[in-house]
Prior knowledge:
Blueprint lengths: L15 E6 L3 E9 L5 E10 L5 E2 L2 E2 L2 H15 L5 E6 L4 E9 L4 H15 L7 E10 L6 E10 H13 L3 E7 H13 L10 E7 L4 E7 L2 E8 L4 H11 L3 H10 L6 H27 L7 E5 L8 H9 L2 E4 L7 E2 L5 H7 L4 H7 L5
Parallel strand pairs: 1-6, 3-16, 6-10, 11-14, 14-15
Antiparallel strand pairs: 1-2, 2-3, 4-5, 7-9, 8-9, 11-12, 12-13
Helix pairs in contact: 1-3, 4-10, 5-6, 5-7, 7-8
Amino acid sequence: MNLDLSTLFGRGNAPLVGVDISTSSVRLVELAQGGKEGLRLERYATEPLPRGAVIDGNIENLDQVVDALRRVWKKSGTRAKLVALGMPPASVITKKITLPAGMSEDQLEVQVESEASQYIPFALDEVSLDFDVIGPSPASEDDVEVLLAASRREKVEDRVAIAEASGLKAAVMDIESYAARAALDRVLAQVPGGNAGQIVALFQIGAQVTHISVLLDGVAIYEREQPFGGNTLTQDIVRAYGLSYDEAEAKKKSGDLPDSYANDILAPFLESAALEVTRAIQFFYTSTPYTKVDQIYLAGGCALIPGLLDIVASRTKINSAVISPFKGMVLGPGVREQALRSEAPAYLVACGLALRRFG
């Protein structure tokens, strides 16, 4: 294969940390076994990225991202040198294909490359290509379903280079939406009945983009991205109070803003956010055979903005909750529970990447 990794669907093993490089920050999570089949959150940390370092999932300033990754690694206190990294969903083409069962790894590889050329709009020597055998085909017992994943090679190499320049090694490359779903699946498994037969909508509200995944019994039945995120609120604060972007971002998080903020700035943002969520649900209904959503989960850095959960639940009339990817985990000695509570929803992808340690 073209990837010098343990594959896009890499097999996790020895101490491995999940590293999520988003538009606004680099987040790190390290998990370990914690007693009877449980997990322990050993450590987690975040470092902000300068504006423009990452735009639409593209690394625009390698040095700034390397600096942030070095700082977050040092701040976390981890000694793990192997990292699981995420690719933005928009930069990875995935396709489920059916192939004859019983093929060797080499035969599969040849067949996958042959099939890939039909689906990938670039020359094969420009892409990093990988595959994972999902299991027997529901349509035929003589076939297997194989998930094919391909990304422009330079996008993969940028992330590998960032890890190497930080003194780390990229051991696993995953797709961010898959990592988020892995973290969500672990949390849903703790719900009585595991949400069996329920349609669950996950809204990851980031700085610039909201990623929507709708799942039925752990399988994605709909995915979409909408250009909406917390940067809108930060820009509104900048304009209203004459602050720099960094000052506005800090005050947004601390709540240190004038009394007029709640009505003049926050309320209209919350209305916009609720409109985006209801619009996304309507798109889901009109573009799929499904006519209901049973549960909404909010994640991402914006999930805990005061009032957001209430307005989403009120406007959609759907059960809504903010998700903590660390629910049910034992906390390591260095993890402060109170701080974690206010930050956890932003770590869904990093947590899902860290779970790759356990295969």
